[in-house]
Amino acid sequence: MIVSSLRGGLGNQMFIYAMVKAMALRNNVPFAFNLTTDFANDEVYKRKLLLSYFALDLPENKKLTFDFSYGNYYRRLSRNLGCHILHPSYRYICEERPPHFESRLISSKITNAFLEGYWQSEKYFLDYKQEIKEDFVIQKKLEYTSYLELEEIKLLDKNAIMIGVRRYQESDVAPGGVLEDDYYKCAMDIMASKVTSPVFFCFSQDLEWVEKHLAGKYPVRLISKKEDDSGTIDDMFLMMHFRNYIISNSSFYWWGAWLSKYDDKLVIAPGNFINKDSVPESWFKLNVR
After folding, report:
1. Which of 3.40.50.11350, 3.90.950.10, 3.40.630.30, 3.30.565.10 is the CATH number of 142-284?
2. How far is residue 72's CA from residue 68's CA, in Å, rounded to a whole number?
3. What is the 3-state secondary structure (H, E, C) of 77-89?
4. What residue ranges do the domains of the chain occupy?
5. How confident is the chain (289 residues) per 10-residue block, as mean pLDDT?
6. Cα(45)–Cα(36) distance, rounded to whole angstroms?
7. Under 8 Å CB-to-CB from 259, ≥6 apart: which residues?
8. 3-state SS track over 18-43
9. 18/76 Cα distance (integer angstroms)
10. Measured between alpha carbons, how far apart are the two ends of the chain, in Å?
11. DSSP, res 276
12. Is the Cβ–Cβ distance between 31 and 64 less than 8 Å?
């Protein structure tokens, strides 16, 4: 069995799920997740499990968790030993630092393992792309505001361009950092050279920054800021309906572009993701700060 603990925001939860399911399918074994521990311990960002909004099964495994006194101590021991100290038949596979695509995890036979990491590269699950896309079908009704935004996106069709602007950084020591307006303006110019009469739809938690720095040269629409979990899922649904994308170094916006309904999509992404293998080869990597 392949097991992992779900953690982080929606984008990271999706990467963990995709990695675990693809490894399980590849090795013809079941998979399961710890659905509670890391969310309960997230005292800073207070993330919640959001995968339940999708058309997928989340089998739960409590046997391999570290949800007990001194659990973090046993977790550290397991990392160092490379096996689950309480269940030695399970390998303990921790993502290498700095993160990158680890091809050995694809080529090796792995039947019992506990995975720890975010695995932010499509190379881990590209051979099961269709299965992953089918799992990430959203099963909720759009809020009325989101429905109106979707209708405008559909109306403009090829002229609509999604921009995902991230203006925060979760760790002071993490590589990547916050992108400044030079990146977005350069990407907008590139899109304008390829798309007739472009209209840019901006997703961000800092719409004031977007208005100040990105509006003016081209038509810009601001997607309403949504605070709750349901709104996060609505934004993911909206993003899937574009053909053209400019994303920041965000796993959330990454998935919005990757799950696009259109095979001929155009995606511009920065080169400063934490995982150097995050940007698919078919996307345009723009190295501008």
Report:
1. 3.40.50.11350
2. 9
3. HHHHHCEECCEEE
4. 1-134, 142-284
5. 96 99 98 92 91 96 84 91 95 97 97 98 98 96 96 98 86 66 98 98 96 96 92 97 98 99 96 96 90
6. 15
7. 133, 136, 236, 239, 240
8. HHHHHHHHHHCCCEEEECCHHHHCCC
9. 24
10. 42
11. T
12. no
Angstrom distance (rounded) from CA 172 to CA 170: 7
Could you check whether the bond before residue 98 is cis, i.e. omega within 30 degrees of 0?
yes
Q: Are 61 and 113 in contact (CB under 8 A)?
A: no
pLDDT for res 170: 56
Residue 234 is predicted with a pLDDT of 98
Q: Residue 175 in 3-state DSSP?
A: coil
Task: Report phi then psi at 142, rounded to 5.
Answer: -65, 145
Contact criterion met (CB below 8 Å) for 112 and 84: no
Q: Which long-range contacts (CB under 8 A, 24 or more apart) does 7-10 make?
A: 7/38, 7/39, 7/42, 7/47, 8/38, 8/47, 8/118, 8/251, 9/45, 9/47, 9/50, 9/251, 9/252, 10/50, 10/51, 10/232, 10/233, 10/236, 10/252, 10/255
Question: Can you tell me which residue has the tokens 């995606």?
Answer: 267
Neighbours of 191 (CB within 10 A): 20
Q: Looking at residue 224, what is its pLDDT?
A: 96
CA distances from 209 to 111, 128, 153, 184 (A): 48, 38, 22, 12
**Rounded-to-5 percentages of helix, strand, coil across the chain:** 40, 20, 45
